[in-house]
Every structure is written in C-alpha cells, then in structure tokens.
Amino acid sequence: MKKSIQLNLDNSDFSDKKILIVKTKWNEEIIEPMVKDCMKVLENNKVNFITFTVPGAFEIPFMVSQKIESFDAAITLGAIIKGETPHFDIIAQSVSDQIINLGIKFKKPVIFGVLTTNNSEQAIERAKTKGSELAESALYLLNEIDA
After folding, report:
1. 109-121 mean pLDDT
2. Residue 2 located in a structural domain
3. Residue 26 forms part of a structural domain
4. Catalytic site residue 37?
5. Average pLDDT, stretch 100-127?
6. pLDDT for position 1
C-alpha cells in the first residue's frame, strides 16, 4: 500500500523561483515518467526550471555543486538498481551522502530523487508517482523558507 502525505502549498505562484533538475542518462527509460511528472508539477506552479543530464547517479552531486548557486533548489532524478556486486551499496551511499551535504553546504533544498531498488520492476513502479512528490517537496521547503 502506497503511503502519501499531503503538502499544503500556501503559495501557488512560484514564478520567482528557479529550480535545478539533474537527471541521469543511465536508466533513462525507467526514470522518464518520474521526470515528466516532476516537470508537470513545476510547470503547474509556474516554477522556472532548467534540466541537466549526467551519465549516471555518481555524477549527480558534481553537477549540482557546479550549478546550484544560481538556483533556489535542486531536484535529483535517477535510479540505482541492485546487482550482484557491492557496486550498488557503494554508489547509493556515496550519492545520498553527497546530496544531503550539498543541501547543508549551500543552504538550499536539494531533493533526493534517486531511486534505490532491488530490481527494475521496483524502480519502474516507484518512478510512476515519485516525480510529483519530489517537486512538491521542493516547493514545500521553498515555501517554508520564505515564511
């Protein structure tokens, strides 16, 4: 059963906000619904956003660190799917650690939207609705920062 929270966004016009989206080329076919869903919510809330594509999840923190200063927030989108080696654990932990550190360092919301799943089926299922949740989280935090 999917658990969902309702975020109340007091400000439905975020036209003065600029959000960075960093997505991966790797597993692009899996995350595409998530990317579209995220962009739809941002467009509906009049947010200015720019998307950058990086090869894989490991490169997301680098791109965010290079671009975040001219944005109000960042949303990261990717999928790391468990394989038979420890590669999954190393990449997933490294990426999540760096993403939270970037938010703290730059004092801006950096939303973790990198799916970490045991298989492709789980990733495909999660990607169906995750994009809107990520966009809403970014908008909620921006709204709270401005309160």
Report:
1. 97
2. no
3. yes
4. no
5. 97
6. 42
- Cβ-in-10-Å burial (0-12, 13-18, 19+) of 34 comes to buried
CA-CA distances (angstroms) from residue 56 to 6, 53, 61, 103, 141? 31, 9, 10, 20, 26
What's the confidence (pLDDT) of residue 146? Answer: 83
Residue 50's domain is classified under what CATH number?
A: 3.40.50.960
Q: Which residue has the tokens 């962009």?
A: 39
How would you label 125-134 residue by residue, b for 16+ Cβ within 10 Å and e otherwise?
ebbeebbbbb
Q: Which domain holds residue 73?
A: 18-146
Burial category of 123 from C-beta neighbours within 10 Å (exposed 0-12, middle 13-18, buried 19 and up): buried
Total of domains in the chain: 1
Of 36, 46, 87, 128, the catalytic one is: 87
| pTM given for the model | 0.93
pLDDT for 49 beyond 60: yes
| Rounded Cα–Cα distance for residues 21 and 138 (Å) | 11
6 occurs within a structural domain:
no
In a domain, 35, yes or no: yes
